[in-house]
Amino acid sequence: MQQYLPYLRQSxxxxxxxxxxxxxxxxxxxxxxxxxxxxxxxxxxxxxxxxFGVVLCGSVxxxxxxxxxxxxxxxSITQGDLFGETYVSAGVDSFxxxxxxxxxxxxLILEYARVITGCRNNGCLAxxxxxxxxxxxxxxxxxxxxxxxxxxxxxxTRDKLMAYLRAQQKQAKSHxxxxxxxxxxxxxYLGVERSAMSAELSRMKRDGLIHYRKxxxxxxxx
Length: 222
Hints:
Shape: globular
Order of helices and strands: HHEEEEEEHEEHHHEHHEE
Structural class: alpha+beta
Number of strands: 11
CATH topology of the largest domain: Jelly Rolls
Helix content: 40-55%
Largest sheet: 4 strands, antiparallel
Number of domains: 2
CATH architecture of the largest domain: Sandwich
Strand order of the largest sheet: 1-8-3-6
Distance between the termini: 46 Å
């Protein structure tokens, strides 16, 4: 576990925990680190929620599928963020979506029940921090879901795109930024048809609102 500390340090889940305490706690919890090729399903839709994960490198998409085989990307989890924790903490019967590696990635898998019930070392400060950080991370995820609602409830495809790109600009603190989605995934995320979205992006570029090249965008208006 020691060799993964630089990756673990990217996550809010491990704030205020020193290296020694972090390694001991993760070993005590039987945490697993898994290398995932792009497209690998890490946690399956329909499975009982017992585990959650942390993206150590790469990214993971939350993908919901219906009975007709249609897939919808609900959101993307990037380095340092958690996935699955909202569902395991809510006590639902099954995952309503799958967690799929969006690129070659490395993830940490933890069993929720072991995290919240404590470890063998009574009064372990590292474990107390871990539980506190988990609660903060769940709250942060709820804010992310609220933000997505702001995007998808916009009336037009242009409005949805502009709201999303403005949020990415604010997060990057720069007019130029890179989004984590390809065109199909972005369309799924915003709940629009891909060809219509691509056409709207072209119109927005022609109208002088944005400039883009692949996943790199720039908002041209103040």
